[in-house]
Design a protein that fits this description.
The chain is of the alpha/beta class and 170 residues long. Helices cover 38% and strands 14% of the residues. It has 5 helices and 5 strands, in the order αβαβαβαββα. The protein has a 5-stranded parallel β-sheet, sandwiched between helices. The longest helix has 17 residues, at 153-169. It starts with 17 loop residues before the first helix and ends with a helix. The model is unreliable at 5-42 (pLDDT under 50).
């Protein structure tokens, strides 16, 4: 005699709908994790200025952050970022900048210039180079004001959230 049974299969899509992902993330972060943040899209979008000279990476970062509920403006260099800043700076909440860029303005120099005009501006630096090359006087905290390339999309969004909240946690 041969036993028989039933076979069932479930299809689980690789990407859940946007609202489901946000609710799931909010639920997971509200389980008592230190630094948990509400992941629902804010009613007033925060604006992130992305300064990255690599076009493909810049486009990907824009897409990830927009899906995270942020408004994104982008620039391919420090000089282009300065031009954008003159048009949009009252609305920029956070600068996400590569450290090494063309046109003679590094990410650090760009951030110093912009922070001189808006001391409340949050800054996150990113680079694919060793942080030791940036100097010992430059304090970078992974996940707060620094992202080492390459980074996954989830880490990008979480670091931006942490960076925006950093003043409240100081």
């Amino acid at each position: 005699m041969r036993a028989s049974g039933s076979l069932s299969s479930k299809f689980i899509p690789p990407f859940l709908p946007q609202n489901h992902r946000r609710k799931k993330l909010a639920h997971e972060t509200q389980k008592g994790q230190k630094g948990a943040v509400d992941s629902e899209t804010p009613t007033v979008k925060q604006t992130i200025m992305v300064v990255e000279d690599e076009p493909t990476l810049r486009a990907l970062v824009r897409k990830v952050l927009e899906r995270g509920g942020y408004e994104v403006i982008e620039a391919p260099s420090g000089l282009a970022a300065l031009e954008l800043w003159n048009k949009k700076h009252p609305h920029v909440d956070l600068l996400l900048t590569d450290m090494v860029m063309p046109d003679g303005i590094s990410g650090r120099q760009l951030a110093e210039k912009l922070k001189a005009e808006n001391t409340k501006l949050k800054v996150i630096y990113t680079t694919g180079y060793s942080t030791e090359l940036l100097g010992k006087d430059f304090v970078l905290k992974e996940g707060v004001n620094f992202l080492q390339k390459p980074y996954p999309p989830q880490k990008l969004v979480q670091t931006v959230r942490n960076g925006l909240l950093s003043e409240e946690t100081d």
